[in-house]
Amino acid sequence: MATNKLAALVVLVAFLAGPAACEGINICLNFNGWLKPSILDPLFCPRGSGPPVPSPSGSGLSYGYYNTRCPTAEKIIKDAVKKAVDENPGIGAGLIRLFFHDCFVRGCDASVLLNTTNSQNSDTEREGLPNKDSLRGFEVIDEAKTAIEAACNNTVSCADIVAFAARDASYFLSNGSINIRMPGGRYDGRESFANETDQLPGPFSNVAQLQASFAAKGLTSDEMVTLSGAHTIGRARCMFFSSRFSEMDPAYAAKLRAQCNGNGNTNVNQDDVTSNVLDKQYYQNVLDNKVLFASDAVLNSTVTRAQVTENADKAGEWERKFEKAMEKMGKIKGDQQGLEIRKVCWRVNNVGLY
Ligand code: HEM
What is the mean pLDDT of residues 149-153? Predict the structure, then answer.
């Protein structure tokens, strides 16, 4: 308990002090993979209890779930996503990531959207180290939810809106090449805690840590490699990769160094080649040593290189695998799901009710 408190304090101090301090601090806390590994790991990160138990796979989900319940729902979401992506493709990237970060913490229950929870906890997932000042696309979810409530109230969960929005963003950003069959029928959770976001793998994670974090959610190593391909769109802050310029392709590193210009909060494109297209370019970038994070670069290691090469080479193969892996990610369940259909996506229906 004392260790947890100390860990929370150091994370807070590092966070408040900004990226430069984070780079220098070198203390791994519970956020394994989000801060650079440290010699103090054994002191601060005792992980005696072994890997978490895999979440059970989703049940009760079905395709076309809203066809009879709320026939306009999926179109409302698709239109909202299309409008947002047309204005700024980066929001589409944000929506895909929102889905991943929702499903990995408490299952796909829209806990990532909450500001106000049943226990009146304000330190929600949105405040967690991987999410704060980083997640985007919330306004698209809210816009879709408002329109859906007007069409058929109390019927469509925020968790399903997040899942469908990720599906639609994948479709638009891939220019129609990626068609995810996403079932519906999720329910919204009533709790959300910042510290639980430490279940998300971090940019400094090694292969074993990446595999373990995905396995803990019932996903295979191949699915981990497949889903990492989402780093072919969107942006990332320099604080997560500026310590490894020397390990990158020299010309690429020089370009990034100039873009970052010593500021850890600067954002750069994740894929320098086709930055706004959800395609298999990421895997060529891994092979060319032109990826940002250590967690991207380590996929070019003996354990996973065969999959990376295959994804880079075979037309259409990665796209089909990505469709399946996203659908499977959408079935991750937490312990306390099926609680309600929220009226507003960022707060539970009745605070403190049960
Ligand atoms: C494999 C382990 C993963 C790690 C370590 C990781 C880590 C990260 C980090 C550090 C960022 C940049 C955040 C920032 O600078 O604020 C990022 C961005 C992003 N990640 Fe991942 N990620 C992983 C897997 C995934 C998966 C599975 C998906 C989706 C299927 C995904 C989708 C994205 C997208 C789309 C962005 C850009 C978001 C935007 O532009 O708003 N990532 N990721």
Answer: 97
Which residues are identified as catalytic? 101
CB-based contacts of 223, cutoff 8 Å, min separation 6: 214, 321, 325, 328, 329
Q: What is the DSSP letter of 347?
A: B
- pLDDT over 60 (residue 38): no
296 belongs to an annotated ligand binding site: no
How remote is the CA of residue 336 from the centroid of ligand 1, in Å? 26
The pLDDT tens digits of the residues spanning 105-148 come to 999 999 999 998 999 999 999 999 999 999 999 999 999 999 99
State yes or no: pLDDT of 5 exceeds 60. no
Q: Known binder of ligand: residue 38?
A: no
**Three-state secondary structure call for residue 241:** coil
In the chain, the domains with their CATH numbers are 1-50 (no CATH), 66-195 (1.10.520.10), 221-320 (1.10.420.10)
Report residue 270 as tokens.
């994740």
- Whether the pLDDT of residue 2 is over 60: the answer is no
Contacts of 248 (CB under 8 A, 6+ apart): 256, 289, 290, 291, 297
What pairing do the DSSP bridges indicate for beta strands 267-269 and 235-237?
antiparallel
Mean pLDDT for the chain overall:
87
Of 349, 328, 11, 16, nearest in space to 189 by CA: 349
Backbone dihedral region of 64: left (phi > 0), alpha (psi from -120 to 50 degrees) or beta? left
Query: What integer pLDDT is reported at residue 27 of this predicted model?
Result: 31
Ligand 1 surroundings by CB, under 6 angstroms: 90, 93-94, 96-97, 100, 134, 136, 201-203, 205, 210, 224, 227-228, 230-231, 233-237, 240, 293, 295
**Can you tell me the mean pLDDT for 202-224?**
98
